[in-house]
Specification:
The structure is a homodimer. The radius of gyration of chain A is 23 Å and the shape is globular. A five-stranded mixed sheet of chain A has the order 4-3-12-7-8. Chain A folds into two domains: 84-272, Sulfite Oxidase, Chain A, domain 2; 281-405, Immunoglobulin-like, CATH 2.60.40.650. Chain A is an alpha+beta fold. The first copy, chain A, is built from eight helices and 23 strands. At the A-B interface, strand 1, strand 3, strand 4, helix 2 and strand 6 of A face strand 1, strand 3, strand 4, helix 2 and strand 5 of B.
C-alpha cells in the first residue's frame, strides 16, 4: 500500500463493475423499449438547473441573516469550478444592491493623481482571468475545537473556486501614481458595515486583481457585484467585496476586522495578526460524512486540495486511518492557488475503516494533523475555534456503508 | 506593427487612462461620501445573478420552438468558461425531462457483456474533468453565404466552453468488452427525435467522455441532463445529449443526421461526410458588432480562439483590415480543445478602420479567409450556408465609435 504507482496504470483493463457486488442487469442485444416520446421544453434565454437537483448552500436560521455565512455543498461539486450559485457566502451586513451604472472605485491617499474609476472605464483597461480559490479564514475552525462537521459542507464549506476576470491592481496603482511613502492599501466595501482590510503594497503589486467577472459572467451579488478585490491565496475577508475605495497609506489601518477579528490569540498570550496566507489543505468529498455507499466493490475516492502558497504537488490518501498511504491522481491542469481535484479508485471489501487525505504543495509544506496544530497553536475556547485550521480530515466508513465524521 | 512583442512589456508603465480622452474626475484625498447604509439581502440557498444583468441567449420566435437553436452572448463572456445558463442550445425536439433515478445508459451490440448503467453506478467509476468547447457544425454558416451576423452572438454564438466531468467512454467499453469486429459506436439520445450519430471506435477510445457534470454541478437540462456524450473538438451534434444507448457496430449507421444533415455538398457534386473536426477559429468579442466605443484612447481588444485539433498556439489581431498584424496575448492556461482568451491593448485615434483576428493552432493550421474557403468549397445556396465555416470575421469601427459587421 506504500505504492506510488499511478492509478491509471494500476487499474487499467481491470473491471470496476464486475469485481464488485453490484448487480448489473444484462440487456438484450437489441434495445426495443417503447418509451413515451413527447416534444420537450423549448429554448429559453437564461437556463436553470433541473428540478431534480436540490444541492444548496447551508446556513443556520438566525435572527441576523445578513451577518452570517453560507457553506458550499462540496460533496456535490464536480471538477474544480464551484458553480457561482453555490459559492460560499460571508458578509457582515447582508448583500447590498449596487447599481453598476452608478458604482465607482475611488483610489486616493498616497498617490499622485487620486481618481474615480467607473465600471465602463475599468472594462476598457487591460484585463486578466485566473482560476483561484477563495477560503474564509475561519473555514474548518470547528474541527480544531473538537466539534467536527458531520458533512464536508459543514466542516469545509467555506471555500470555493471560480474563474475570475478583472484588472490587475498594479495597473490601477500605476494609473494613479504611488508616492514614495506608500506601504499599504486599505480596501473598503460598499456594504453597510463598510468592511475594510489593509493589504501590504508588495502583495497588492504582486497578483491582486480588481474583479468584475466570475465564471464567465458578471460577479454574483453575494460575491461582490459589481466589483471586488481578489487577493489570491489569502484569507477570504481581505478579498473585499462591493469594492468602493482603495486608500493608499503608509501603515496598516488596524480596522476592526484586522484587530478584533481575524487575529489569533496564541497560547503564550501573544496574537498572530496579518496571518493572511491560507496553508495547504485537502478534504475527501466523496465518500464523506452523511453519504451512504450502496454496496462493496470499486468506488472512486475523490476530493479537493488547495494551497495559498502555490500549486498542489501531491495528495496521498489513506484507507486505513493513516497507517499506509497511496498517491492519488491529480486532475490537470494543476493551477496556482486553485482547487486541485484528486481521485483514487478503491475496492472496498466491506470492512469498517477510516479514510483521510493529505496534501503537499509546491513549497514542500505538508498538511498537518490536528494534534500537530494543537501542539503549535494550542486550543482556543469558544464556538468557532481558530482561524487558519488545515488539519487532516478523517471520515469513518462503517460496515453498512454509512460515512460519518470521526 | 509587425511586432511580436508581448503587450505586457510593450505597454507596461504606460498610462491607459491619461493617454486617452476620457474625463476622470479627481477626488479629494479623503472620501467622505455619506451614502445611505441599509442592511442588505440575507443568505440564500441557490444564488441568482444581479437584476441589473440582462445578458441572454438569442433565438428567433418560431412555431416549432423545440427544433431550433439559441445562441450564447459571446460579447458578454469573460474568461473561457461559458456560464451554464448561457451555454448555446441546439435540439431537434425540445429539452426532455429525464429523471436521473430512472435513467440508464445501455451498451450493447458487438460487446461481450451488454449492460445497463444507472447514474449511481456511473458515479462510482473512475472519473475525469476537462475544460472543452462544444461548437455546432453550423456555427457561422451565415458568414459563408454572405449574410453576416450583426453581432458576435448572431455570427458565432453556437459555441461555448465548460468544465465537464464524467467517465471515459473507454472505461465503459472495457467493462462491456469489445468484440473483434467492433468499429463504430452509435450514440442515441432520449429526446423524442432520438437524435443519433455514429462515432468511429478510434475516437471513442481516444478521448470521448460520458458526462454528468458541467461547471461544477449536474449538467443543465439543455446540455443533456442527466447524461451526455462529450466528443472533444468534433462538431457538437455528435456529443449526443440525454444519452440513453450506445450501440457498438461494425460500420456507420448512416442516421438521418449523418446522411441528410451534417454532410456538405461540394462544388463537384460529391459530398463531405463525417467531417467531424472543428478547425481553428477565432473571433473578436469586444469591440464587436452592436457595441459603441465611448471615446477614443486605450481600449482592450479581446476575443476567443479555439481549435478541435488541439491547443491554440497564436492569435494575431489586425487593426487596419488585415494590412498589418500584431500578436495578441493568450491567457494561460492554454488548454487542449478549449476556448483560449486573447487580448491586445490598442489606442484608438478616432479613425474609421476594420478589426479582425486570426488564429493558428498547434498543428500549424491557420484560420483562413472567407475567400479561401469559397475557393476550396464553393458557395452553397440556402439559408444556412455550409457547416464548418471558420473564416476570419472582420468588424468595422466607425468614427463615431459604432461597431458593425463588414
Amino acid at each position: 500500500m506504500k505504492s506510488t504507482t499511478r492509478p491509471s496504470s494500476r487499474f487499467s483493463r481491470r473491471s470496476f463493475v464486475g469485481a464488485g457486488s453490484l448487480a448489473i442487469a444484462a440487456i438484450p442485444a437489441a434495445v426495443t423499449a417503447e418509451e413515451v416520446r413527447t416534444i420537450g421544453v423549448p429554448r429559453r434565454e437564461y437556463g436553470e438547473r433541473s428540478s431534480f437537483e436540490r444541492s444548496a448552500r447551508l446556513f443556520p436560521q438566525t435572527s441576523t441573516p445578513g451577518t452570517g455565512a453560507s457553506r458550499s455543498p462540496l460533496a456535490d461539486q464536480y471538477g474544480i469550478i464551484t458553480p457561482s450559485s453555490l459559492h460560499f457566502e460571508r458578509h457582515h451586513s447582508g448583500v447590498p444592491t449596487v447599481d453598476p451604472a452608478l458604482h465607482e472605485l475611488a483610489i486616493h491617499g498616497l498617490v499622485e493623481r487620486p481618481q474615480r474609476f467607473t465600471m465602463a472605464l475599468l472594462r476598457r483597461l487591460p484585463s486578466v482571468s485566473r482560476i483561484n480559490f477563495i477560503e474564509c479564514g475561519g473555514n474548518a475552525g470547528r474541527e480544531h475545537r473538537g466539534n467536527p462537521g458531520a458533512t464536508v459542507q459543514q466542516s469545509h464549506g467555506l471555500v470555493s473556486c471560480s474563474e475570475w476576470t478583472g484588472v490587475r491592481l498594479s495597473t490601477l496603482l500605476n494609473e494613479v501614481g504611488l508616492k514614495p511613502s506608500a506601504r499599504w492599501v486599505l480596501a473598503e466595501g460598499a456594504d453597510a458595515s463598510r468592511h475594510a482590510r489593509s493589504i501590504p503594497l508588495s502583495k497588492a503589486l504582486e497578483d491582486v486583481l480588481v474583479v468584475y467577472g466570475q465564471n464567465g459572467e458578471a460577479l454574483r451579488p453575494e460575491q461582490g457585484y459589481p466589483l471586488r478585490l481578489l487577493v489570491p491565496g489569502w484569507e477570504g475577508n481581505v478579498s473585499v467585496k462591493w469594492l468602493r475605495r482603495l486608500h493608499v497609506i503608509d501603515q496598516a489601518m488596524m480596522t476592526r476586522d484586522e484587530a478584533a477579528s481575524y487575529t489569533d490569540l496564541m497560547p503564550d498570550g501573544r496574537a498572530r495578526q496579518f496571518s493572511f496566507e491560507m496553508e495547504s489543505n485537502s478534504v475527501i468529498t466523496s465518500p464523506s460524512g452523511g453519504q451512504q455507499l450502496d454496496g462493496r466493490g470499486w468506488i472512486e475516492i475523490t476530493g479537493l486540495a488547495w494551497s495559498g502558497r502555490g500549486r498542489i504537488e501531491q495528495v496521498d490518501v489513506s484507507v486505513d486511518g493513516g497507517a499506509t498511504w497511496s498517491q492519488a491522481e491529480l486532475q490537470a491542469p494543476i493551477l496556482n492557488k486553485a482547487f486541485t481535484r484528486f481521485r483514487l479508485p478503491w475496492r472496498w471489501q466491506g470492512q469498517e475503516t477510516v479514510l483521510v487525505s493529505r496534501s503537499r504543495d509546491e513549497t514542500g509544506y505538508v498538511q498537518p494533523t490536528r494534534d500537530a496544530i494543537i501542539a503549535a497553536r494550542g486550543m482556543k475556547e469558544g464556538p468557532d475555534g481558530f482561524n487558519h485550521y488545515n488539519g487532516l480530515k478523517p471520515w469513518k466508513l462503517a460496515r453498512d456503508g454509512k460515512v460519518t465524521h470521526v
